[in-house]
Design brief:
Elements: E1 3-13, H1 18-24, E2 28-29, E3 35-36, H2 39-44, E4 54-65, H3 66-70, H4 76-87, E5 90-104, E6 112-113, E7 116-123
Antiparallel strand pairs: 1-5, 1-7, 2-3, 4-5, 6-7
Length: 125
């Protein structure tokens, strides 16, 4: 189980649009009501996470400035310095999409999938 209170996992990547990014998270259902995992869940081997604790941002301008990319997210004052300690202030690529899963400690078994990449997990409270 990767759900873990007080931790947040960071994923970055590129999307063509906000709509495309939203489709990446779309969970569909069978006629019997069983859920069919989203592309995001399939890409990273995630069986379940609470969608209420997910924050996603699409920027019209790509950037490699981690401080800028994480500005305005919940608990940013706590998590920005922690992620900068792990990744450095400048990423090795420019991205326009950021995904944060709160109360989730991703195990990192898939660190890169298609256009998205897992950067790490930090404690936020």
């Amino acid at each position: 189980m990767m759900e873990k209170k007080g931790f947040v996992s960071l994923f970055i990547g590129n999307s063509n649009s906000y709509e495309e990014l939203q489709k990446y998270f779309f969970v569909s259902y069978t006629e019997d009501g069983d859920s069919i995992p989203s592309k995001f869940e399939k890409d990273f081997g995630i069986e379940y996470y609470n969608e209420d604790f997910r924050e996603v941002e699409f920027y019209s301008q790509s950037s490699n400035d981690l401080r800028f990319l994480l500005e305005g997210f919940s608990y940013s004052e706590e998590i920005v310095p922690e992620f900068i300690n792990i990744c450095g202030e400048r990423l090795d690529q420019e991205v326009n999409s950021v995904i944060l899963l709160y109360d989730f400690q991703y195990d990192g078994k898939v660190d890169k999938a298609n256009q998205f990449k897992f950067l790490g997990t930090v404690q936020y409270k």
